[in-house]
Amino acid sequence: MHKIAVMGDKDSILGFKAIGFDIYPTTGSKDEKAGLLNSLAEDGYALIYITEDTAVDIMDEISRYRSSYFPAIILIPGSKGSLGIGKRFVKESIEKAVGADILAHNE
Question: What's the pTM value of the predicted model, to 2 decimals?
Answer without folding.
Answer: 0.80
